[in-house]
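Section 3.1: Structural characterization of target chains.
Under the original work plan, the team committed to producing a structural model for every single-chain target entering the pipeline before any wet-lab resources were allocated. The record below documents one such target. The sequence was received from the expression subgroup and is listed exactly as submitted; it comprises 158 residues.
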Amino acid sequence: MIYIGKVVSTHGIKGEVKILSNFEYKDKVFLVGKTLLIDNKEYKIRSYRKHKNFDMVTLNDYNNINDVLHLLQKKVYLKKEDLQLNRDEVLDEELLTYQVVSTDGKVGKVLEVFFASPSNKILRIFLDKEMLIPVHSPMLVEIDKEKKKIVVDLVDGI
């Protein structure tokens, strides 16, 4: 299962819930008819809209606030097979399993993936020493999803 976010509150009286999520591929998750998992129970998305920083959804046939109160503060997941990523899209959790190879032959690993800002994803890698490499940097040559490998071209002085 893939962690998507958390139900933080209800909205209105018609059973709509607010989900706080910073999942990168929301456009592939929050679709009408898609199934979410909350407490190992499946819930089908009946409607979706964006409101400020929240993803607003109505689930199953819930039409009343009292029907959804049991979902408050619960974590929201998606089955991995339900997430259909393109060939060049990779989950951050998967990047942690990838091998890092520099163009001069050094081999290392990914220690962490984090966001320095909402649009600036950083890889913390270890190749002889710990380094931070922005994903949208010319130093990151390739992310090979099939071989589970990240190729980097390190600049002198790093």
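The first strand starts at residue 2 and ends at 11.
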